């Protein structure tokens, strides 16, 4: 299981490479919630999301031989761009499997970072088999989006920085997909804020981790229908789940409407852009899912990759 | 005429009261323009725009007797909220004349800062006469949105901070309405970056300052039709114009479409929210109005007050 030393080691790797993103604070938000709220703005991270942290921590540790062979992953989202950029920075090639129906803007994003995009049909082809086949045939290292200890530890640096740049927390809210961000964050939070409550936030339609914690084992659900496209995972990871069991106090869920409200608040009051999954943890705070009177609260704003047209559609 | 000492004095006043807003930098933007671009993010200022700087610099200098009498201004925009907040911070009352058709969100903003809103009909009532009548009858100090040396010097602290937090500039782009921001900024820019070119940016439809500079005297135009509602002024100020004549190299104009493009770039690439006037100076840089190859460029992002619905309409 990863430890705080792994997070510290990741922080060393990321020094001068990842952005130390700002911690935002809003008087209005404190008045609204009754707590002191610190927002870690990972929408300002390289590639627009926290995903760069984990990808770079993993990829910067490749051996010279591995760098020559390159990396491969499958992702239609922020992890794709994160892997492409991290690979370019260490001089490795990256193959990214993306569904045929991925938005052009995301394809161009990956290609802009020098990644090679391989399209596949998500309805007829098995993505896991496909990516493993490429990894084996070409000797490429598979960079998993969450179920990898270097990735988990790398993501944990977001909450490490959040606490270093604010104060010890009583609560921290983190969005949950496969569990990479929350597992690293939970380890960092407990190391720097003993007694902290780590609260995971899932979209209502995709509460696989909430169900898994209640059941005491990993539960798989159908692909959830939610605007939070970064959290359409169907089960917690094999490596992330035990960390979540050990360090996470509870999982709360938010509706798509609550996510839109949080995106609107971020836009109008904080003047920043959040994608739906990026606003998920914040939505739980705004919707009052937990009483925060007198609490010292950290919240991850995990990403801001949404095009203006899509945002307009959600606000319309 | 204001001098750099006035800007420094304003900076002292604002210390610990105004936010020292971040200076943003984007590799992608540098590649696009061929220059090094520093963006001063005044959308993160208190009340969401640079206007707080000038208002507070003016209002914090009221005598005790003046504070007891309070202040008055007329504004439907960011200056209204800036005056309301600044007055509250020094314990003075504020009366803000706002047109009957002002958006409710702006009315609530002023009232939220404790300002008293007085509605008037902008089609039948003379705003200048009205505000002067209240000032005289109630002994209130009129806080002009730009034609006031304390206001001008206060706004100049934005560019002072921009240069202190980056490096000496070859060019600085500043949006122009009545000329408060650009006059203070031009004085600060020339003090900290000798030889700098100060470039004012107006909406195409409202180029009263451009016309005035060419004519060598203040020209008045009809109220311009533009989405840049912070720049619907009809003439440069009496006090701002001589400063602009002395320190501003040129005025360039941008179309509403170019402003929308800049707002979209800020949203999608920088993950920040700009209102139309707030994106005006940036629009000139993005549209390539001036060759910036090898230049070291400062740009004011002057405000971010736009509701999500209106933004959606512009992006649709």
Summarize the structure in short:
Chain A has 316 residues and is an alpha/beta fold. Chain A has 14 helices and ten strands.
Can you give a write-up of this model?
By secondary structure, chain A is α/β, with parallel strands linked by helices. Chain A is 45% helix and 15% strand. Chain A is built from 14 helices and ten strands. In chain A, the strands form two sheets. Chain A has a six-stranded mixed sheet, sandwiched between helices. Chain A has a four-stranded parallel sheet with strand order 5-4-3-6, sandwiched between helices. The model of chain A has no long low-confidence stretch (mean pLDDT 96).
Secondary structure layout plus pairing:
The structure is a homodimer of 316-residue chains.
Chain A: H1 4-14, E1 23-24, H2 27-33, E2 36-41, H3 51-59, H4 64-69, E3 71-74, H5 78-90, E4 94-99, H6 104-112, E5 116-120, H7 127-138, E6 141-142, H8 149-164, E7 171-175, H9 180-192, E8 197-203, H10 208-215, H11 240-247, E9 250-254, H12 256-270, H13 280-286, E10 296-301, H14 308-315
Parallel strand pairs in A: 2-10, 3-4, 3-6, 4-5, 7-8, 7-10, 8-9
Antiparallel strand pairs in A: 1-2
Helix pairs in contact in A: 1-3, 1-8, 3-5, 3-8, 5-6, 8-9, 9-11, 12-13
| Strand order, sheet with most strands of chain A | 1-2-10-7-8-9
Of all protein chain pairs, which has the greatest interface, and how many residues does each chain bring to it?
A-B, 21 and 21 residues
Taking pLDDT < 50 over at least 5 consecutive residues as the criterion, the unreliable ranges of chain A are none
What Rg of chain A, in angstroms, do the CA atoms define? 18 Å
Order of helices and strands of chain A: HEHEHHEHEHEHEHEHEHHEHHEH
Biggest β-sheet description of chain A:
6 strands, mixed
**With helices defined by DSSP (H or I, 4 residues minimum), what is the helix count of chain A?**
14
- Overall structural class of chain A, as computed from helix and strand content, comes to alpha/beta
Q: Beta fraction of the residues of chain A?
A: 15-25%
Helix content of chain A: 40-55%
Which of globular, elongated, flat, extended, rod-shaped describes the shape of chain A? globular
Quaternary structure of the protein: homodimer
């Amino acid at each position: 299981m990863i430890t705080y030393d792994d997070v510290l080691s990741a922080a060393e790797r990321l020094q001068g490479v990842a952005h130390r993103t700002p911690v935002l604070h809003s008087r209005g938000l404190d008045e609204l919630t009754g707590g002191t709220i610190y927002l870690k703005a990972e929408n300002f991270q390289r590639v627009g999301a926290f995903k760069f942290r984990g990808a770079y921590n993993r990829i910067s540790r490749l051996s010279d031989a591995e760098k020559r062979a390159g990396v491969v992953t499958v992702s239609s989202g922020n992890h794709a761009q994160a892997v492409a950029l991290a690979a370019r920075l260490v001089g490795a090639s990256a193959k990214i499997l993306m569904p045929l129906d991925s938005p052009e803007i995301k394809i161009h994003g990956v290609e802009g970072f020098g990644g090679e995009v391989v399209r596949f049909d998500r309805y007829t082809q098995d993505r896991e088999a496909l990516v493993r086949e490429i990894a084996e045939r070409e000797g490429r290292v598979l960079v998993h989006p969450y179920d990898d200890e270097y990735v988990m530890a790398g993501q944990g640096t977001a909450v490490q920085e959040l606490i270093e740049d604010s104060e010890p927390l009583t609560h921290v809210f983190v969005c949950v997909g496969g569990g990479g961000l929350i597992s690293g964050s939970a380890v960092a939070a407990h190391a720097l804020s003993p007694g902290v409550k780590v609260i995971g936030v899932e979209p209502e339609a995709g509460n696989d981790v909430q169900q898994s914690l209640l059941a005491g084992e990993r539960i798989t659900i159908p692909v959830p229908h939610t605007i939070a496209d970064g959290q359409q995972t169907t089960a917690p990871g094999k490596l992330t789940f035990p960390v979540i069991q050990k360090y996470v106090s509870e999982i709360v869920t938010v509706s798509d409407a609550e996510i839109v409200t949080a995106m609107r608040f971020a836009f109008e009051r904080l003047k920043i852009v959040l994608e739906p999954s990026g606003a998920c943890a914040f939505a739980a705070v705004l919707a009052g899912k937990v009483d925060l009177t007198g609490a010292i609260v950290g919240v991850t704003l995990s990403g801001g990759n949404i095009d203006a047209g899509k945002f307009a559609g959600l606000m319309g």
